[in-house]
What we know:
Helix content is 23%, strand content 31%. It is built from 10 helices and 21 strands. Helix 3 crosses helix 4 (142-155), helix 3 (125-134) runs parallel beside helix 5 (171-183) and helix 4 packs across helix 5. It has a 6-stranded mixed sheet with strand order 7-8-9-3-10-11, with helices on both faces. A hairpin with a 2-residue loop joins strand 13 and strand 14. By secondary structure, the protein is of the alpha+beta class. It has helices at residues 6-13, 69-77, 125-134, 142-155, 171-183, 201-218, 229-235, 253-258, 263-268, 391-396; strands spanning 23-34, 43-54, 58-62, 84-89, 92-96, 101-102, 110-113, 189-193, 221-226, 238-243, 246-251, 272-280, 285-288, 291-294, 306-311, 330-340, 345-351, 354-360, 371-375, 382-385, 414-416. The longest helix is centred in the middle third of the chain and has 18 residues, at 201-218. This is ABC transporter ATP-binding protein. It comes from Fertoeibacter niger. GO terms for molecular function: ATP binding; ATP hydrolysis activity. One of its GO terms (biological process) is quaternary ammonium group transport.
Amino acid sequence: MxxxxxxxxxxxxxxxxxxxxxxxxxxxxxxxxxxxxxxxxPVIAIDSVNFEVKRGDFLTLLGPSGCGKSTTLxxxxxxxxxxxxxxxxxxxxxxxxxxxxxxxxNKRKLGxxxxxxxIWPHMTVFDNVAFPLVHGSARVPSAEVKRRVMEALELVExxxxxxxxxxxxSGGQQQRVALARALVHQPKLLLLDEPxxxxxxxxxxxxxxxxxxxxxxxxxxxxxxxHDQAEAMSMSDEIVLMQSGRIMQxxxxxxxxLCPKSRFAADFMGRSNLIPAALNHDGTIxxxxxxxxxxxxxxxxxxxxxxxxxxRPQAIVVPDPEVDAVSPNTLLGEIRTLSFLGETVEIDLGIxxxxxxxxxxxxLSLSAGQVIRVVLPPERCLVVPDPDASDRTxxxxxxxxxxxxxxxxxxxxxxTR
Length: 417
């Protein structure tokens, strides 16, 4: 998007001072349950949620359906009343159960885009965008309304459709109208609740780039909700990964994808080989169904821990067969199946009666039944706790300490997605 007037919005978004390093949004110990706890077990939607969003940052709440991400966003917006906790926005407490503070949604200086867009079909594009100014609590002169609406429409490149009625708009255009309406009153915080989920794949890819570019140019602090890992990783400065109402991990997209700290994070954030492992020595050597494997020493667990060794299929190296050098964690296996996917080749590699998923260079000459070497670089082998590991699984991967390789009937190696 070419945005000529972004500086007008940026000045408002950073009205508290360009050099202010405080977080614009602070969420502390937030809880929300549905039902009366005195009449039975309540449904806990969010439980002890804590995070901050730096001024001008793009933060994504990511997780599966029902994890509490939309409820968290609605509590920030003032559309849901939290059961307890505190929310600070631009240095002001907008909710605190301890202090009895609840600032109404229309007083929170934020804009919001919903999954359904909520575009009124009997109104023109102009009237839809003008609605917060015309019907808001603050009276805005008509000349100012026109100026700000047209500026907002210009930002999303819809100024030429100002007089068109919304039923005659495409899905992408309706999404832009909703975004312009959220921006028209120049909010300090922008909330986006799965705004791309109703678009087709190609348009969704285009819009996620445009939204990221726009909010960065405007300097608006943004909280985005999605269940789509690709959206989260491509758009975010920071991701908050949620499951069952709790935060499982916080970090940059790169940190969460490359360094998952739990089985859930490794499983949810793309494809992974999850290999049952028993740690010995100093916690950097893992006994697995594939034999002993070295692990990343910066992400080790205590010796004798129940663990899963995590490695992404694309992190596994298929070395040149003409090179005789053997690296640590080199394994020999037979290609069971091979699928050409264009940008990569997906391989199911049989090793000691178990299967390892590998993503290889499509230019390699590979075929089913071929025996190849693969390398699991130790720095890419992470271990995460596996509290569900059974005693049988532990024995199968050599917890006894003999370093034996698991037999064909030993613990299963799982590949997710």
